[in-house]
Amino acid sequence: MTQPWTLEDFVKDALGRVPEIAAEELHHGTSRQEMVLLDVREAEETAGGALEGAVHLPRGLLELRVREHVARSDTPVVVYCGGGNRSALAADVLLKMGYTRVRSLAGGIERWRRLGLPITGGAGVRPPPGKKLGWEEVRREFAIVARCVPVLGEGERALVYMDHAASTHAPSSVLGAYTEFVAREYANIHRGTHHLSRKATERFEECYGIIARHVGAELQRGTICFTSNTTQAIDLCAHVLAERPGLVVTTEMEHHSNELPHRRRGPTLRARVTDEGELDLGHLEELLRGNRVKLVAVTAGSNVTGVMPDLRRVARLAHEHGALVLVDAAQALARMPIDVRDLDHPEHIDFLAGAGHKAYAPFGAGFLYGPRAMMSEVAPYIPGGGTASRVTANGAEYLPAPDRHHGGTPNIAGVVGMARALAFLQAIGMEEVREHEVRLMERMLRGLRELEGITLYGPPDAHKRLGVATFNVDGVSDLLAAAVLSEEGAIAVRNGRFCSHLYMDKLLAAGAKAAGGEVPTGAVRASVGLYNDESDVDRLLEYVRKVRDRQWRGRYQVKGDVVSAEFAGRCADKWMEATKD
């Protein structure tokens, strides 16, 4: 039976005909002025810069527009892309069109960048050449900024969205790439030779490099497997290590997604957190010293307090005791720079899980990064279409990772959207993203601390946490507080226990003990994102103060975990208060 071609097959076939040029030769050559440099990346990819003098001509427009830029068929042409695959395919197309002096830049702009060769902004469309996105430009990318919602007694008001720790909205450029793929390039990958299938395959394969760049990974010894979300990515890691001897150590601050998948496959231990919500590294070391541990599973940043464990120290401790490390990067992926480091580095991260819907992409796509050899040795996560190279009546030969674990058709459009969202973040700069969140969190934490009657969980230093603040208002349930913020302040926050019950139990008990009151059943969580600004933080603080002072204007009925509200106005010079059934 004839096997379907993969993008790798297409690239190898093209490279058999297309000569390459090394970055060093191109940079030091004396005939640059005689040649045409073609950048065949998409507009979003050029945000980080281009080669000086390059003509930006996306691969999809190559056949249509190339003669406008290269009139003579004997003109020297060098084609480049991100990593060298698309440029090989594009150069092959030019050869078939009659161009005789075409070469592909080996390793693409990524190898050029690694060699420290000069980059300019010459091919950029968004942002402007040589310039990163500014914050006003970032805000304009998000339609949600102009969204108005009804509020009690006031008609409508602009929404302040502070539920980024649950899900983020996609910017217009990401939505554009997503809908463009669905509308014009929608086809299955790795299974066809027709134009749309080849195009979809190219788009999908590009995503590996974009995601690898975002987390500092290399894809020779490492690999990326696509999943539907972070939970599935963590479950895939648990599957890969299921037969490996030893215990799994999680921590008390983990989201259930980084606890339950390990639990169902074998015994687990749990590293403690302090009353302030920070990881007790001394206890982790005790567990590693006293047990045979195969994996330490830890969050890069808590979804409750934003606390960021010292991942470098965790990794070093784990590796010193023969254990691997899995990092749940669901919260951190869009909030801070991440570098998994080389697999030989003592502080490297072995596995890293993340998803697009917390990183400004549409729902439905996630990924697991891990060691390629290890992930190619275990049985497929879900055997099925796309995972086998050959199937007989009595057996099957499975492909290596990542295809080994991509059972069935993946969410191709979702993966494309996730990669475009990470490219958008890269265009801003993850250091800048982090600085923006710290600035907003300093304002928020300072304001909450200055309000009496507020219990704030986690460290007071904004530099020690992601853009997440969880708190309670004395004497007001978390459900009622969140409802007032929403129905009267048009502020979207989250309340409850945030799928981190063990952590919340400890935080709520410690907070109640310090305050000398009863232990609450939940808390309110406000989390900032790219398009929040100081005015959003100030409105949150304004309405938290109103909740504390019982100055809400509505009549609220709380039944279990559901709250209903109606406008009450004034009654006998006293604000109406909540009623409970």
Automatic annotation (TrEMBL):
Keywords on record: Pyridoxal phosphate
GO molecular function, one term: cysteine desulfurase activity
Organism: Cystobacter fuscus (strain ATCC 25194 / DSM 2262 / NBRC 100088 / M29)
Cofactor: pyridoxal 5'-phosphate
Pfam families linked: Aminotran_5, Rhodanese
Signal peptide: none
Protein name (record): Cysteine desulfurase
All copies of domain Rhodanese, residue ranges: 31-121
